[in-house]
Amino acid sequence: MELIKIGKVLKTHGYKGHLKVFIDEFYMDDFEEMKALFINNLPYFIVSKDINSDAQAIISLEEIDSKEKAHPLQGKDIFAKDDDLTEILDGEEYDHLVGYEITDKAAGKIGIIEEIVEMPFQFLAKVMKDKKEILIPLNDDFILTIDEKKKQMEMELPDGFLEIF
Predict the structure, then answer these.
(1) Could you read off the pLDDT of 52-71 as tens digits, one per residue?
(2) Which of 37, 53, 83, 146 has its CA 20 to 30 A from that of 9?
(3) Is the same domain home to 37 and 18?
(4) Rounded Cα gap, residues 110 and 122, in angstroms
(5) Predicted TM-score (pTM) of this structure
(6) What are residue 122's DSSP bridge partners?
(7) Are residues 7 and 80 in the same domain?
């Protein structure tokens, strides 16, 4: 069983141990069906959920029935069993690109990938160019070629993309 990060506990809500949580929109449909989740590698059964439209919810967990019991969970990441998820957003497929040079078909050399950043629904390559941080979407529509031997990735970014940085 593998645990996948799906969100974060934002804060306590009320005095009965309810928690306000953020759930990554990618996993929201699965979260609506979940009976349990994991915080600090411990399983918690969900007693109730009140989901609102902006990827947040108020939840009640079994055995968390006071603000004092809920307080230590604030700021903690929320995980789900991979079996409970219909689809998993997997950043590992891009991790090997750290250190690769990105070039754009039109603009030429952009820079070296320093880090892969996970965002809802996508992964971004963090590149420093002229002392400015640029986050480039690792979208299959933009990637033209990846040369494993030369550690280079050629992309065709939308017109004007690099001008916003």
Answers:
(1) 867 899 999 999 999 999 99
(2) 83
(3) yes
(4) 20
(5) 0.57
(6) 119
(7) yes
